[in-house]
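Exam revision sheet. Question 4 asks you to relate a sequence to its structure. Input first:
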Amino acid sequence: MHIKHLEHLLAVAETSSFSRAAEKLYITQSALSRSIQTLEEELGGLLFDRIGKRNELTPLGQDIVVRARQIVQESFELRRSAEMFHQGSGGEIRVGLGSGPGALLMTPLLCHIAEHHPGVRVSITRGTTELQLMQLRARELEALVVDARRVAPAPDLLIESVAELRACFICRADHPLARRRTVTLSQLLDFPIASTPLSDEVARLLVDHYGPQANPAQMTTLQCEDVGSLIDTVERSRAVFLGVAAAAREGLDAGRLVELRVTPRLQATARFAYITLVGRSQAPVMGLFRQFVAERLRD
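Answer key, structure tokens:
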């Protein structure tokens, strides 16, 4: 039994047609038929019922297809591991970044790779955590760095905590609230609150800390996944940013932005995780990305 026979079986199972499967595999229909016949002889039974122009899996075929998918995937990973071993420092970094990690990592990562590792290709995907998890499971991405609180544990996910960053309220330096020694929640709510979508855990923490008015569903008036856009909005308006201080580091260091002294002090943090698929081999070049994430995700 050869892997090619199993790949041919899967192609016919997916298309229910020998002609379409042969076209997809770039082989002749007669060659495909011989391959399936050889597999049937080895397994001792028919894998397809030929019903008119359709080819339906027999009970044996249904059972074999499930096992064949696993074997073909393992074979793919085996070949992929060998290819990655020979790539050395080359290869491709294909990752998804959540809103906070994107603001902290995306531009610095692109600059770092362009400057120090010009042979490495980089592809960064942004979007909702739900969409990026789908892309990871579809093997369109190698890893994610996202808000850990927005990812439910699952048997196929390896979730590793990489950073916990302090959250706060931030406004531009000439904002009316910036001159106050302390700021209350009611004073904050006189202005638009800008934030990324927050997890239920953070929402409960805010409500417990400040009361029902702090529920993000009502308190947040400007919301998007792109932290950079939120920070730009805060610098150009009277909006107040609620999020990790590290995301506004450049503006804070330059004096364009200030952290508000909200009372009682906000005790929330953003917890970021590095997520990969269990059992999936990682390219050597992903070690560069892991190291970069560890160095950059800090207060």
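Marking note for examiners. The first helix runs from residue 3 to 15.
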